[in-house]
Write a sequence for this structure.
């Protein structure tokens, strides 16, 4: 009997070693960043059983076989639609400036999406203004309304949006709504889905969450895009979910969420609609590619060029991070960034510190209080290196600053749904606009300066005096920052 126990023990130890060795080999084979690989290996070695289970569940970009097969089948028709953009009158690469030409070339080669002219952009920086303008546009809709959000939370003006969508459906406007299952679970448990479906609106829950699905695909991949397209002529995108901040997450103790949205008309609205169509077909297997951009009288100028940049599983890896790095390295005078969650990759951290050390004024604006405790603690270890390099860190005190924006030299801007953390840069479905429009970029810069005026600028000497216990907690979360 003793010999049997010895044999079983040896078999168990050998099996354990083979599993650890196999997963370690797989982590190395995936060739991700060194930080991500080391974080996973440390988790597996320190807490083996939990670490192994977590890696199988959320360690790799597993969309599921059915979804992956559908995406592969969709590639050719969507690629063909996007290739048609290069033949339109709005494709004017000769009009790109020095900041955007490299970004445009990157997106053309990796995404097959060109920068297009003839766009009219309006920045909306107040929740009431955003929702009121959206309501007015919905009321004028004639043929179709496509809505895609991570979070829809009932209450306040968000309910008025729901009501005008119902009214639009009742006058035979085709309304389709795609919402992330996890982010919008409160909405799906409310009265609104039934009222909308009764009116003829089609509502789809994206990336459903369940214990069964957990065995077949990664559950923490989320649909983080925010897109509204009306009649294929008016588009909205930006950082704001479909919420009224006065009625959302009031118990978190972080204040109201502060966001911006871009209202866009012109040639890139069908491109946003194409992204919606891709996400819709991925969930429903129903194709609804939009009409391509119409030809407009064109003035030979470079002030209205916009590049739409989708990112996420099934698309070229590291797309948004490459665009960010290109933008930062091209800066000559100033970089101003806003992000609610700041857990940068090694490459982004180096780019920001290098920019500051070569004389570029770098301003980073983040919330003073965050709704994610882990992210808040994980971001702090980066502050010392940034402050020592001369980066100005502003902690916004007027609520949860949720705006995701980058302004370079007051001439080039990025705005959309992407946070500066690994989840947005590597995992979630996101969308960003790269804007070559000085007037719009300077309007965005003015909003950023309003944030800074309502912020406290961190002091490097004071930061170094923080208690030892805080440093230890920061370092603990820092070890897992590549996984957040």
């Amino acid at each position: 009997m003793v010999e049997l126990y010895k044999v079983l023990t040896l078999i168990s130890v050998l099996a354990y070693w083979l599993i650890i060795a196999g997963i370690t080999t797989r982590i190395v084979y995936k060739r991700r960043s060194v930080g991500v690989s080391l974080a996973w290996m440390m988790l597996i070695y320190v807490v083996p059983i939990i670490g192994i289970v977590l890696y199988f569940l959320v360690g790799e970009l597993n969309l599921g076989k059915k979804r992956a097969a559908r995406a592969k089948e969709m590639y050719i028709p969507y690629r063909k639609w996007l290739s048609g953009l290069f033949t339109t009158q709005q494709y004017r690469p000769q009009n790109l400036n020095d900041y955007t030409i490299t970004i445009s070339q990157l997106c053309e080669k990796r995404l097959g999406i060109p920068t297009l002219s003839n766009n009219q952009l309006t920045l909306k920086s107040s929740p009431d203004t955003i929702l009121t303008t959206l309501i007015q546009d919905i009321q004028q809709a004639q043929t179709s309304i496509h809505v895609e959000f991570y979070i829809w939370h009932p209450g306040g003006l968000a309910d008025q949006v729901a009501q005008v969508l119902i009214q639009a459906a009742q006058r035979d406007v085709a309304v389709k709504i795609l919402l992330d299952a996890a982010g919008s679970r409160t909405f799906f448990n409310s009265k609104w889905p039934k009222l909308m479906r009764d009116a003829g609106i089609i509502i789809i829950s994206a990336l459903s969450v369940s214990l069964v699905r957990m065995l077949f695909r990664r559950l923490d991949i989320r649909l983080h895009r925010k897109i509204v397209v009306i009649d294929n002529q008016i588009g909205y995108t930006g950082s704001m979910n479909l919420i009224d901040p006065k009625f959302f997450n009031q118990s978190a103790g972080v204040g109201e969420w502060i966001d911006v949205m871009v209202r866009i008309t012109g040639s890139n609205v069908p491109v946003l609609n194409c992204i919606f169509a891709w996400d819709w077909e991925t969930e429903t297997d129903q194709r609804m590619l939009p009409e391509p951009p119409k030809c407009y009288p064109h003035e030979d100028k470079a002030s209205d060029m916009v590049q739409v940049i989708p990112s996420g599983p099934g698309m070229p890896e590291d797309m948004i991070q490459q665009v960010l790095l290109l933008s930062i390295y091209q800066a000559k005078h100033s970089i101003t960034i806003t992000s609610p969650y700041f857990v940068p990759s090694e490459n982004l951290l180096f780019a920001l510190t290098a920019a500051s050390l070569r004389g570029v004024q770098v301003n980073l604006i983040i919330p003073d209080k965050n709704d994610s405790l882990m992210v808040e603690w994980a971001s702090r270890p980066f502050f010392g290196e940034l402050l020592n390099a001369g980066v100005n860190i502003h902690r916004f005190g007027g609520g949860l600053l949720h705006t995701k924006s980058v302004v370079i030299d007051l001439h080039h801007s990025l705005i959309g749904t992407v946070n500066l953390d690994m989840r947005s840069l590597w995992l979630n479905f996101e969308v960003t606009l790269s804007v070559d429009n000085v007037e719009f970029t300077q309007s965005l810069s003015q909003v950023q300066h309003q944030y800074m005026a309502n912020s406290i600028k961190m002091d490097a000497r004071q930061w170094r005096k923080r208690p030892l216990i805080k440093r230890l907690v920061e370092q603990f979360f820092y070890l897992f920052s590549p996984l957040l």
The radius of gyration is 23 Å. The first helix runs from residue 2 to 29.
